[in-house]
């Protein structure tokens, strides 16, 4: 079900000439994509209110993480040493998070919620856009499509589902589903900040299906890793064709209604007219429900006896391939190799520091959402928390 666009005022133009240009372009009837780029400018966390969206309903049974045992982890979130004006200062952990534009920060260990804090007016029920975490949800949808028989194999050419691509350019016949999942498709993506760039087109176009079907190849598939938002867009269209339903319906039935989500999620759309999910960036959910995606992967696709994803799919999703030029990337998941022989850690990451970070050998999930990344290396913060959890558990 669609919801109407929730208009916000345009971002501050800053200069009168820019606003004048916006007015002129409106009068001459420039494209919706160009108007969006000039009016909304760079992406931000309010984009959840700018695009129309489609609901991802949850189920009737809610899964609840256990509360922390009193005082068990009292020493875990001690002051953080930071630098300010060239000097080192000790800063309270909550204050550290708040000052770095954090909205939500959760740490879950063995299904126990050992830390949960919200800042800047957010609360547990607050739904935020996740940006590129959305790509990891698209990857999950591919696993579901494989299990349902809608897609036969990741080795299949994407032209099986999108024959128009092959008809326009025969070279697309060797681009596989796996090439798209691993960002090795070879699809051309020219970076730039103009309203006519690929960055603007892949984010602001009101007709992303047409965008997906008009792509060109820059180099042979499988020869180069290049982080590219066209890969999930093309793959999302293939999923829609293969399953015969919108991605939101597929995910609601096969995932969101089965993991005990506390709230319905939503997925931002390219436009009301075309109604295609923004596969690269449009998934919106609460932080507590994002943690359940991490829990599902820690349990290799099993949800308390309900097999949602195949075990081999979860393992493949978080397995990088150095030989293919992606030593830190699986199937739309980032991977952090362990030096001590333990299972790899992995995470879904979105712009402005949105994270689902999973540590399998510690049965631990960390979720962070925020207005900006706060100029913080969040993976390093997560690593420190893992070390402290280890220290507490061994004491």
Could you write a compact summary of the structure shown?
Helices cover 34% and strands 18% of the residues.
Tell me what you see in this structure.
This protein is α+β, with helices and mostly antiparallel strands and 395 residues long. The protein has one domain: DD-peptidase/beta-lactamase superfamily (Beta-lactamase, 3-Layer(aba) Sandwich). Helices cover 34% and strands 18% of the residues. The protein has 14 helices and 16 strands. Helix 5 (133-148) runs parallel beside helix 10 (230-243) and helix 5 (133-148) packs across helix 11 (247-256). The longest helix is centred in the last third of the chain and has 17 residues, at 378-394.
Mean pLDDT: 90
Order of helices and strands: EHHHEEEEHEEEHHHHHHHEEHEEHEEEEH
Spatial order of the strands in the main sheet? 3-7-6-16-15-14-13
What overall geometry do the principal axes of the alpha carbons give?
A: globular
Structural class determined from secondary elements: alpha+beta
Distinct helical segment count: 14
Distance between the termini: 51 Å
> Biggest sheet, open or closed, and with what strands and sense?
7 strands, mixed
The proportion of residues forming helix, as a percent range, comes to: 25-40%
- Subunit arrangement of the protein: single chain
CATH class: Alpha Beta
Number of domains: 1
Specify the CATH homologous superfamily. DD-peptidase/beta-lactamase superfamily
Strand content: 15-25%
Q: Which spans of ≥5 residues are poorly predicted at pLDDT below 50?
A: 12-16, 24-29
Number of strands: 16
How does CATH name the architecture? Answer: 3-Layer(aba) Sandwich
What is the CATH fold-level name?
Answer: Beta-lactamase
Radius of gyration: 21 Å
